[in-house]
Amino acid sequence: MGARRPLKRALAVALETHGESGLGHAPVPPAGVILDYVKPLDRLLAEQPDAITLVTLGPVTSLALALRRDPALVRAKVRRHLAMIGNLNAAGNTNRYAEFNAWCDPEALDVVLAAGLPTELVGLDVTRSIVLTGDEIGRLGQVDDPDARWLHAALEFYRAFHKKHEGLDGCVVNDVLPIAALVRPEALTFQALRLVVDFEPADTRGRTRVDSKGHAAHVATAVQAAPVRQLLFERVLPWLSPVAA
Predict the structure, then answer these.
(1) Residue 160 is assigned to a structural domain of this protein
(2) Which end of the chain offers a freer environment for a tag, N or C, measured as fewer CB atoms within 10 Å?
(3) Is 199 exposed, middle or buried (0-12, 13-18, 19+ CB in 10 A)?
(4) pTM for this one?
(5) 185: CATH
(6) Residue 164 falls inside a structural domain
(7) pLDDT tens, 200-234?
(8) Mapping DSSP to helix (H, G, I), strand (E, B) and coil, where does residue 170 land?
(9) Domain encompassing residue 201
């Protein structure tokens, strides 16, 4: 169960990017169903018999809250933290510098970095390399399979956003890269750096930047897109073959 709002800020969501449900035009079950595995992060960690790899694909508020409640537990159970967050050199997607997850709750990211976990940041610098083309998305919509149609409905919304705001006929599929890196570690190159997170002013809020006095982390600085796209089509889009570059 994720945090309901950032640590110190009002909740901001990306409706124009992902739609009201977060999955574009794809239908989702109605809200309100409680499942037995929906628990706060610290409770989930406490139930793990061994140390785990934790992958975070959104703002890291839940992890920051777990660190505040029981830092010893988090350090004992998280042997590796792979976070899709931050940005060093690419154009930001919220302001000139910042990636959305870092911008949404910069204070939480600062808490996580300060905790000294074995954190690896996979930011916009590398995730923007993973693109589904408009042709690939269009062909997915022609497949007579309910799962393919569901994915197409989600991706078409995202495709329209990119075309309107960036002139890109396709969409960047950021979230797949940290997962692919678990299967194909050679796809990403990491560098040990020290980072600080800007809280203010608004035009730099959420900026992650190198500073010798900052917190230590490993940051993805290069990506091999081809093996990641191969995994994407093998595991998620098996009805299609990728368009040759």
Answers:
(1) no
(2) C
(3) middle
(4) 0.93
(5) 3.90.245.10
(6) no
(7) 999 999 999 999 999 999 999 999 999 999 999 99
(8) strand
(9) 54-130+173-235
